[in-house]
Design a protein that fits this description.
The chain is α/β, with parallel strands linked by helices and 284 residues long. It has a single domain, classed as 2-enoyl-CoA Hydratase, Chain A, domain 1 (Alpha-Beta Complex). It is built from eleven helices and nine strands. The chain binds zinc ion (ZN).
């Protein structure tokens, strides 16, 4: 699809769509353009009745370095995009605009993809950092290459966790706390043991294995697939997922507001200095 610049949209097999993150030179950091192109591609696949299963993959050695902290997603730019939510205040002062942006672009998009009416499979290699988890976790199945590493380093930024706060449901409460407290990477083998990923395969088999899995699923009746997905999602939501996530999102915004008051930036400037050698960038 020629209209996409930061992703590729492919049809690798009958009834299967594959969306590929294609900013390898930026370790697939999520610019606003990438997030909205990804959303458009998911919509394309979801609304195409000839597609039953959607694969999310990434070009390059790393799946995603997270939100692009150098992408100055100012309120005006967000307002110019076709928004998917109903929130407002993108141009307002104080905490209001940041909450609006993050409610729309971060938790809003991830929640929307989690609820797509078709099975989705993430094929993951290399590093998956913070915002990267927010692309992987909304998918129904996850296939990881042996070299995959998963990290939420937002506490190092002075923030209480990634906006799509699914950690307790993905790795259990004990490991969720440890991964947040330490900002350590979790290996593919470890998250497989914890049940966060379905399969771990050699890197050179990642795409072929995922495509075979997708094709097998795509042979099933789509309506039954759709409702099986809904049934599991409803079960998870009845465990309190939505309320828990609303609370953690509010805490996340409180952290941004606190950092802004104390440091003049929404994240701890020490993190920006250590990471980029500058205070430029305002994401997380
Ligand atoms: Zn944030």
């Amino acid at each position: 699809m020629s209209e996409f610049e930061t992703i590729r949209y492919e049809r690798p097999a009958e009834k299967v769509a594959r969306i590929v993150l294609d900013r390898a030179d930026a370790r697939n950091a999520q610019s606003m353009q990438l997030l909205y192109e990804l959303n458009d591609a998911f919509d394309l696949a979801a609304q195409d009745d000839s597609i039953s299963v959607i694969i999310l993959a990434a070009n390059g050695p790393h799946f995603s370095a997270g939100h692009d902290l150098r992408d100055d997603a100012g309120p005006r730019v967000v307002a110019d995009h076709r928004r998917i939510g109903t929130w407002c205040g993108f141009g307002c002062a104080g905490a209001e605009s940041r909450m609006a942006i993050e409610k729309e672009m971060y938790i809003g998009l991830s929640e929307r993809w989690r609820n797509l009416p078709k099975p989705t499979i993430a094929a993951v290699q290399g590093k998956v950092i913070s915002g990267g988890l927010m692309l992987v976790w909304p998918c129904d199945l996850i296939v990881a290459a042996e070299d995959a590493l998963f990290q939420d380093n937002t506490v190092s930024m002075g923030v209480s966790g990634a906006e799509f706060f699914n950690h307790p449901f993905e790795v259990g409460v004990r490991k969720a706390k440890e991964m947040l407290f330490t900002s350590d990477f979790l290996t593919a083998a470890e998250v497989h043991r914890l049940g966060m990923v379905n399969h771990v395969v050699p890197l050179d088999e990642l795409q072929s294995f995922t495509l075979r899995l997708a094709s097998r699923i795509a042979e099933k009746p789509l309506f039954a697939l759709k409702l099986a997905k809904e049934s599991v999602n409803v079960a998870q939501d009845n465990q309190g997922r939505v309320n828990a996530m609303q609370t953690s999102f509010a805490y996340h915004q409180l952290c941004h507001s606190h950092n802004q008051q104390v440091h003049g930036l929404p994240i701890d400037p020490d993190f920006m200095r250590q990471t980029f050698g500058t205070q430029a960038g305002v994401g997380s």
